[in-house]
Each structure stands twice: as C-alpha cells, then as structure tokens.
Specification:
CATH architecture: Up-down Bundle
CATH topology: Growth Hormone, Chain: A
Helix content: over 70%
Number of domains: 1
CATH class: Mainly Alpha
Order of helices and strands: HHHHHHHHH
Length: 246
C-alpha cells in the first residue's frame, strides 16, 4: 500500500505521459485557492477563477439578495471570456509543444497579476469599487488564459480551477482501489484547500496586496519550472491534448 501511495505521488510530479506538467499545474491549483480567497474576501464577494460561482452569484444579485455584486460577477465573466479567447490565440501559435505553451501562458498571467498588484498598491489600503473591479477584470483575464491553456494540455484531474469532477472521481472510483489515481486527485483537492486557507489569512490580516504578492510568487515559481519544461522536445511535450471539464 505504501508503495502504491509513493507511485501515485511520483506520477503526479514526473508523469510518463505528461512529464512535469502535473507538478506545475499543482502550483496553479494552489494559486487558484489563493486567488478566489482574495477575490471573495477582499474584492466584493466575487470569484476570479470559479466562473460557476459567479453565475450563481449573478442569480442571487438578480433576486435581490444582499451582499452580492452583480457588476463584479459580470466583470469577472466578461474578463474570463476575453482571457479564454486570448488563450485560444496562444494555443494556436504554440500548440506543438506543451511546455512552451504553458510557459507563454504563464508569462501572460504573471504580467497581468503584476498589473493587478500595481492597481492594488496605488489604491492604498482602502480599495474603491472601481479599484476592486479593475483587479477583478485583470485577474479574470489571467485565469481565462490559464483555463484555456490547461484545458488544451489535457492532464487528467488537473483543471486547476474546478474540483467537481475530481471529487466525483474520488468517490465513484473507490471500488477500483486505484490508490495512485486517488492520491493524485486528493493532492489536487488539498492544494486548493491550502491555497484558500493561506489566501484568507493573508487578506484578513495583511490586505489584498499581500495576497496578490503571494499569487505572483507562485506564478513566478511555475514560470521558472515551465521555462525548464520548454527546453528540448521530449515525448510528453507533443503528446495528445484535450481535457474533459472537471
């Protein structure tokens, strides 16, 4: 059993089909928890990464429920769609090498979060509604790019932003007793949970800007890893792509 767990962890970080991509996407999953904690707690109860939540929040706002921002959720959705369209352009240019594709997407995402940090710092400790919406828009564009590219990379159980199908897989496949797959899925869930806890602590005690700095650090780490992954043309770099939503 211990060997199975070890193999599951190794396959997550050095997969024979996907190379280092699972490890890099794990960092982005951690970042998603951070990002949505920041946006929910510091930017007016709106999701930057989880668009399903925004659709639900729009419904609440339209029904007149207090505390839900119609404008914030609409801005997030629009930004996300714009980012996904931009991600499609990145995919069309670099689809031949998955490492280079992820690297270039992360460059875009990193620059966008640096812009979000500049907006946050320039606004001071008390963000205006306009400042909040600007950060939401920039962040949502970044996550739209990320989601489009991650979807194309086609790494199983690694959507980086949505865990519904990952959790479904954990439950529905229990009878198979596939500990390697279960371990991979559980690590993804725990990564997002850890990101959410960390993001909440940073926003509640140190402010939105500190949370965005943490996101930028994670993206920088993933970017450095993707630069290494973009070197050469190993078999995993040109492997099959396309991922089911999860």
């Amino acid at each position: 059993m211990e060997a199975a767990r070890s193999n599951g962890a190794r396959s997550y970080f050095a997969h024979p089909v996907h190379g280092p991509l699972p490890a890099l996407l794990l960092l982005l999953t951690l970042g998603t928890g951070l990002i949505d904690a920041i946006s929910i707690l510091g930017l007016g109860r709106v999701f930057v990464a989880n668009m399903t939540g925004n659709v639900v929040f729009i419904g609440f706002a339209l029904a007149g429920a207090p505390g839900y921002s119609l404008s914030g959720s609409l801005v997030a959705l629009a930004g996300f769609l714009l980012g996904a369209a931009a991600g499609g352009i990145v995919i069309s240019r670099f689809c031949g090498h998955r490492g280079k594709l992820l690297r270039n997407a992360l460059v875009v995402e990193f620059v966008l979060f640096l812009a979000a940090l500049v907006i946050s710092l320039s606004a001071g400790p008390q963000l205006t509604i306009a400042g909040q919406l600007a950060i939401v828009a920039v962040g949502a564009i970044a996550l739209g790019v990320q989601n489009a590219v991650v979807r194309h990379l086609g790494v199983p159980d690694m959507t980086t932003t949505v865990l519904t199908m990952t959790l479904t897989g954990i439950g529905s496949d229990l009878r198979k007793r596939d500990l390697a797959t279960a371990t991979r899925r559980l690590i993804a869930v725990l990564a997002m949970l850890a990101g959410a806890v960390t993001g909440a602590i940073l926003v509640l005690h140190y402010g939105v800007s500190t949370g965005i700095v943490a996101v930028a650090i994670l993206l920088a780490m993933a970017l450095i890893g993707s630069v290494w992954a973009a070197r050469g043309t190993p078999g995993w770099a040109t492997g099959a792509t396309g991922q089911r939503p999860g």
